[in-house]
Design goal:
Number of domains of chain B: 1
Radius of gyration of chain B: 18 Å
Shape of chain B: globular
Oligomer: heterodimer
CATH class of chain B: Alpha Beta
Shape of chain A: globular
Strand order of the largest sheet of chain B: 1-2-4-3-5-6-9-10
Strand order of the largest sheet of chain A: 1-2-4-3-5-6-7-8
Radius of gyration of chain A: 20 Å
CATH architecture of chain B: 3-Layer(aba) Sandwich
Number of helices of chain B: 8
Number of helices of chain A: 9
Distance between the termini of chain A: 28 Å
Helix content of chain B: 25-40%
Largest sheet of chain B: 8 strands, mixed
Distance between the termini of chain B: 29 Å
Strand content of chain A: 15-25%
Order of helices and strands of chain B: EEEHHEHEHEHHEEHEEH
Number of strands of chain B: 10
Chain lengths: ~270, ~260
């Protein structure tokens, strides 16, 4: 039977998280909620991650950020600060000294920022996290158009040229407009700094973020030479969706996550 | 709005712990156990159920929210979630509410398809003050068919035509057992339970014949049939607050 405990933390103990698993030599995986989805995760993904990793001796902690799920809005405590408060609580209570932080989409953004902010963060799990479009993205878009029957090219090109050109509504905001992302130059510098600290990173991109990721060569274009560092794991799963809805993508993610933990932080019984 | 102070806890047998949250009300004589909706409707409605529990607690009712075994933050795998398990979970929730809040009378407020297992479960109990059903699913087979069609559309949108017809025991993003599907398909709101039954529904919804009382939802009440989108969370509207307050007064009157 799974070992789960409830942790109350933050201002007046008004935030609640679920800790799964016992003491471990490996970092504790912290999963802030993603978007407006409560802490159990999209389609209960965070609970499945917790159950799988607990069997491998890895503890997890999932929690609702302020204003989501069960958590109240807390003046002065944004998502970045709340993540730090969660780590402070876990460290102060002797639950863990080192952490991996991350998740899907906005939770990946939390993971990146936590790793940048906090030397206790030894790893980040970035599922559809930060990346930048650039020439390989544009190439993939054009290649996608050319793969269609020629009679469809004019219409597709008109749409790609932008709604203004087509006389339509204003363009939808790009990912960088609403995600908590650094600039490309900042991201490159931040990744170099993380690697200088020996932080391990797992990047996974899916077809669910085709608005900003369509070609695996974008990764190196975005992050530079550091993208090829052995402490950086990168996958592009074009056959998976953003929230791992069906069984196949779900299993693929759980397998990859477990394998990455073993490679990055040693198997059960060993410590890195 | 604030959900007020509440206490997270584990309830039920230690071999199958359920995540729960008690919204206490000092001196409460009536308690309300809140049975959440199923599958994708459960996480989408998490926030609004927290807010409703807080509102009811502020009106003097002790409220207990919980996640079924194999769902939400409770222990267990999704495949272990079926009607027998849900009915055991309802037993655990009612027992915890009596023990923790010290209430004399307990009512159950069940959302959507939770009405199906709760209906049959309530028929076997004589200690329930009322069974209130929020937009109940009355025909399990029809609901399951609608879910299967929605699931195929969702898969096609995510994986293309090739992914549309994959049979992988997931439904609306969650693993479900054969037993769960059979339970839902066989369930209907037929022979009325012993407890007084209420419905909370939109004006256009057909009347539930067995219901003794009906509360009408405003047009802007959260919709449960808006898909599985990651941002489709539900929130409490100002008009809905009036319905919650009316419902709270009806629950409180059960002790009269």
């Amino acid at each position: 039977m799974s070992m789960q405990t409830l942790e109350r933390f933050g201002p007046d103990n008004r935030l609640v998280g679920v800790l799964s698993g016992g003491a471990s030599s490996r970092p504790l995986l912290v999963l802030p909620n993603a978007g407006l989805v409560p802490r159990a995760g999209p389609f209960r993904l965070h609970v499945e991650i917790a159950q799988r990793l607990e069997a491998s001796g890895i503890a997890t902690f999932r929690f609702d950020l302020p204003g989501v799920g069960e958590s109240p809005h807390l003046a002065g405590l944004d998502a970045r600060a709340a993540t730090r408060v969660a780590l402070d609580h876990l460290a102060a209570h002797g639950i863990a000294e080192r952490f991996v932080v991350g998740g899907i989409c906005s939770a990946a953004d939390r993971g990146w920022l936590a790793a940048v902010d906090d030397a206790r963060v030894a790893g980040a799990v970035l599922l559809d996290g930060v990346c930048f479009t650039g020439p390989w993205f544009q190439w993939a878009r054009i290649a996608g158009v050319l793969a269609r029957p020629p009679r469809e090219w004019p219409g597709v090109l008109r749409r790609h040229a932008g709604p203004a050109a087509a006389g339509g509504a204003p363009a939808a905001p790009a990912a960088a407009d609403y995600r908590d992302w650094p600039s490309r130059a900042e991201a490159r510098a931040q990744l170099r700094a993380l690697l200088a600290r020996d932080v391990r990173l797992l990047f996974v991109y899916t077809r669910g973020v085709e608005e900003y990721f369509r070609d695996p060569r974008q990764f190196a274009w975005s992050f530079g030479a550091a993208a090829r560092d052995p402490r950086v794991s990168f996958h592009y799963w074009r056959d998976c969706d953003h929230t791992f809805y069906a069984q196949m993508p779900r299993r693929r993610l759980l397998d990859a996550l477990e394998r990455w933990f073993d490679e990055a932080f040693g198997g059960a019984g060993s410590a890195r | 709005m604030s959900a007020g102070p509440w206490q997270p806890l584990w309830i039920g047998d230690a071999s199958r712990p359920l995540y729960a949250a008690l919204h206490p009300a000092p001196g409460a004589r009536v308690g309300v156990a809140m049975a959440p909706p199923l599958l994708h409707e459960q996480p989408r409605s998490r926030r609004v159920l927290v807010e409703i529990a807080g509102r009811l607690a502020a009106s003097g009712l002790a409220c207990l929210r919980f996640d079924y075994f194999g769902t939400g933050d409770s222990a267990g795998a999704g495949e272990q979630h079926d009607f027998a398990a849900m009915q055991a979970d309802l037993d655990a929730a009612v027992a915890a509410l009596r023990d923790r809040a010290g209430v004399r009378r307990v009512a159950v407020l069940a959302w959507r398809a939770a009405a199906l297992p709760a209906w049959r479960w309530a028929g076997g109990r004589d200690d329930l003050a009322a069974l209130a059903l929020w937009e109940p699913v009355a025909d399990g087979a029809a609901w399951l068919a609608a879910l299967q069609a929605a699931d195929r559309a969702e898969r096609e949108g995510r994986y293309g035509r090739a992914g549309r017809d994959v049979e992988d025991a997931h439904l609306m993003g969650f693993p479900v057992s054969r037993r769960w599907r059979d339970d839902v398909a066989a369930a209907r709101l037929d022979a009325p339970p012993r407890a007084e039954t209420w419905t909370i529904a939109r004006a256009a919804a057909p009347a539930e014949p067995a219901a003794q009382r009906r509360f009408e939802l405003p047009a802007d009440a959260p919709r449960f049939d808006d898909g599985v989108g990651i941002e489709n969370a539900m929130f409490l509207s100002r008009k809905l607050l009036g319905v919650i307050d009316e419902l709270g007064r009806a629950f409180a009157a059960l002790d009269a």
